[in-house]
Design brief:
By secondary structure, the protein is an alpha+beta fold. The protein folds into 3 domains: about 170 residues, FAD/NAD(P)-binding domain, CATH 3.50.50; about 90 residues, D-Amino Acid Oxidase, Chain A, domain 2; about 70 residues, no CATH class. It contains 10 helices and 23 strands. Strand 22 and strand 23 form a beta hairpin. It is globular. Bound molecules: flavin-adenine dinucleotide (FAD). The site of flavin-adenine dinucleotide has 35 residues, from helix 1, strand 2, strand 3 and helix 6. It holds the Pfam family FAD_binding_3. Keywords: Oxidoreductase.
């Protein structure tokens, strides 16, 4: 078997395998399904995730449309607030919001790696210097096997619940008809029936409706039964139903992400409600964080102790993003009639809050915390832990205004003379700019 075995050919596992190959590590992806997952799930990725995919030669732009922003509506479809995206590209050089279809992405990623389909992993045994996966030897195992992860159980990790569970109906539609709708995300902020609508592709659309107690997806299996839900946006006669499914959106994080030579990534390690479209993005960030470290440890360039920085860096980041998703979900949909009233009063005035539009639309996620590979001073602001715009080098790279003139403004704003950039684009350390000479 290959030195690294990836369990699960979802987007996290495929990306991890492609990144490992980029860093010169052979790996094999084992997938229990006999053919790729056909159903749409994720529909949004930000520009940080776009950059990770670009680093393995995947052009997300070829299969996506730039997102136009967010519109908040009340139950009567009156616009409460609107946040439009103007810029074509963000600081990494890609659109900050990208609408796409998950099976399209998985199809492209699969061409980059070796996948063994129909190979369910049922046994993982750790030995001192190797792991046995279904009896075969590997140096490391990456558990990218989704929410019901076998690997998670095998290493004795448990999901910790962050107190969120909502049942939603997810409706995917194909149509060539012009629905004549504004092309950003529509969020209906209504306690009785929260809903989300968005255009995903040229002829692909997604609706999500919060299910009421006693309702199930079985109540909405055809377009005639979906009519009252979809009517505010479209005539069902123009639509072709691709699928209807019920999902319980949860917020959970595994209590440990590593046991010796076995790691958890993606949905196997964390679950988030999709309100800010960050579940899959988090899996891609896990893959980018771990792949170069594993390669450097295998090559003897870094000590094995740096592998502990994977959970230390990624878990707090994931927790922050999950809290943000929960907060946004609650702000848009909770609070009963009083919540609806409050939203009607507050949301139309949001444009008066200075800087709020930029904050709502910003795709920049928080900097990583201090670790052996993020040298952040305690009492001074620093670029360390943040992402360098538009750069994911093959090797650790020092950037200065002289070597990278396009980064001169970024360094100046970060009060840095130079920055050491890791292969995942994270700033390991920044040298403060001295007093003016
Ligand atoms: C309705 C909905 C909307 C969403 N919207 C967004 C969004 O807009 N943006 C976003 O970023 N995320 C979104 N997500 C989340 C996103 O879809 C998931 O986070 C993502 O699919 C997780 O990828 P993964 O590779 O970690 O896991 P998965 O996609 O679950 O893949 C795991 C793979 O492992 C395989 N496997 C399992 N067990 C074994 C085994 N024992 N042996 C071998 N193989 C195994 C499975 O068959 C599967 O192929 C959404 C999710 C849902 C449900």
């Amino acid at each position: 078997m290959a030195p690294v075995v990836v369990v699960g050919a979802g987007p996290t596992g495929l990306t991890a395998a492609a990144l490992l190959a980029r860093h010169g590590v052979d790996c094999l992806v084992l997938e229990r399904r006999t053919r790729p997952h056909p159903q749409p799930r994720a529909v949004h990725l930000d520009d940080e995730a776009y950059a990770i995919l670009a680093s393995v030669g995947v052009d997300l732009g070829a299969i996506s449309r730039p997102g136009q922003g967010l519109r908040l509506l009340d139950a009567g479809m009156r616009v409460l607030a609107e946040f439009r995206r103007d810029a074509a590209a963000g600081r990494h050089g890609y659109p900050e919001a990208n609408m796409f279809d998950q099976p399209d992405l998985e199809r492209i990623l699969r061409r980059k790696v070796t996948v063994l389909d129909g190979a369910e992993v049922t046994e993982i045994i750790q030995h001192g210097d190797h792991v046995r996966v279904n009896g075969e030897r590997a140096d490391y195992v990456l558990g990218c096997d989704g929410a019901n992860s076998f690997v998670r159980n095998a290493i004795g990790a448990r999901m910790r619940d962050l107190g969120f569970a909502q049942r939603w109906l997810v409706v995917d539609i194909d149509t060539d008809a012009d629905l004549g709708q504004w092309e950003g995300v529509h969020q209906v902020c209504d306690t009785r029936r929260a809903a989300t609508y968005m255009r995903v592709g040229k002829s692909r659309y997604r609706w999500e409706f919060r299910l009421r107690d006693g309702e199930t997806a079985a109540d909405y299996q055809d377009l005639s039964r979906l009519r009252p839900l979809i009517a505010p946006w479209a005539r069902v006669e123009d639509l072709e139903l691709r699928r209807v499914a019920e999902y319980t959106f949860r917020a959970q994080i595994a209590d440990k992400w590593r046991h010796d030579r076995v790691f958890l990534l993606g949905d196997a390690a964390h679950l988030t409600p999709p309100f800010i479209g960050q579940g899959l993005g988090a899996g891609l960030r896990d893959a980018a964080n771990l792949a170069w470290k594993l390669a450097a440890v295998r090559d003897g360039e870094l000590p094995a102790s740096v592998l502990d920085t994977y959970q230390a860096e990624r878990l707090p980041h994931v927790r922050t993003m999950i809290r943000l998703a929960k907060l946004l979900g609650a702000a848009m949909t909770e609070g009963g009639e009083f919540g609806n009233l409050l939203r009607r009063v507050v949301m139309p005035r949001l444009h008066l809050v200075p800087g709020l539009k930029n904050r709502v639309l910003s795709s920049e996620t928080p900097a990583l915390r201090r670790s052996e590979l993020v040298r952040r001073p305690r009492f001074r602001r620093s670029l360390a832990g943040s992402l360098c715009p538009g750069l994911m080098p093959d090797r650790m790279t020092v950037v200065t205004a002289e070597t990278h003139p396009e980064l001169a403004d970024w360094l100046r704003h970060g009060h840095a003379r130079a920055a050491l950039i890791r292969p995942d684009g994270v700033v390991l350390e920044a040298t403060p700019s001295g007093p003016p000479r």
